Amino acid sequence: MTRFVHTALLAAVLLSPLPFGSIHPMAYTALAIIVAILVGLCTAGTVLSREEPAIALGRIGAPALLFAIAVSWAAIQSASWTPISWHNPVWAEASAVLGKPLAGAVSIDPFATRTSVMRLLCYAGIFWLAFQLGRSARLTSRTFAAVAVAGLVYAAYGLFVEFTGSETILWFEKERYRDFLTSTFRYKNAYAAFAGIGLLCTAGLLVRRLADEDFSALGPREFWRSILTLVFERIWYLVLAFVLMFSALALSGSRGGFIALICAFATFFLCIGRRDATTPIVRRALIGAVGATGGRREIPPSPTRRRETSSRVRAAPKRPRSGRREIPIRAFPHSGRASRR
User: Fold this and answer.
1) What is the pLDDT of residue 311?
2) Tell me, what DSSP letter sits at residue 13?
3) Over the stretch 43-85, which tens digit does the pLDDT of each residue have?
4) What is the per-residue DSSP string for 237-303?
């Protein structure tokens, strides 16, 4: 059940940009229905298996409470049973013009308000499913790979449309942003946000792949040689995907998308830096960073490495000492000469 829910969620989310970024009612309503079904299946599976959820709601109690207050207030604004003094004055004016009483509301368009509440709950459902399923390392790896591939496909399509001079989205003429890359989205900021998510997932795959390598025994020159070999022979496809997605994001001309991308990467690297420095991923990344700058700072070895080193030292044969007494050399502070004492 979990694997089915995860696959269906990925398919629904990654295919949603196809119909103009799901800005039309049929598209976002279908997405909301699919997400509601998946949330129900996930909940039913947890209840029938009598297992605790991967992450209890109490872990995010404060954000969940704030979100519930916002959604509840939005729903109340679309209701007609609220006090008349709360209602928008347009309802009274329309009632006077039409000559009949109208059931007013705080919102001037209750249907649009309810639609917005539905879309907010849809996004909350996607977050909750991803939050629960993301506790599995296997499913998380699949998610990163799927989002990276989808970002590459949408970026490649956008670049193809841009360089062929076709001002279309699929087989429809563009209505706006004709001079900017929007891929299958109608709005450039929406595509820039989606491309940023793909870039972030690709960066995560790159960092994980680099962390699998051990650069601890390499000098600066050997370090860069190993990096270039790794990039051009083993992970060239990830680098190419990153370059294509970044190029598509740049051609979108979205300043907001770039600001969001900078904030996302700052948070990403901050989370990496806050991890324990003795874990393999972070320790190797730090060793690589030090090797790239040619520094001499040593990263403290892990307890396993210390035990292995101690065993080798104890097993090594002792060297015989010579009978001569070594005399330390101390330099004079001003003359630059050395003397023995």
Assistant:
1) 52
2) H
3) 888 778 777 777 777 788 889 999 999 999 999 999 989 888 8
4) HHHHHHHHHHHHHHHHT-HHHHHHHHHHHHHHHHHHHTS-TTSHHHHHHHHHHHHHHT--PPPPPPH
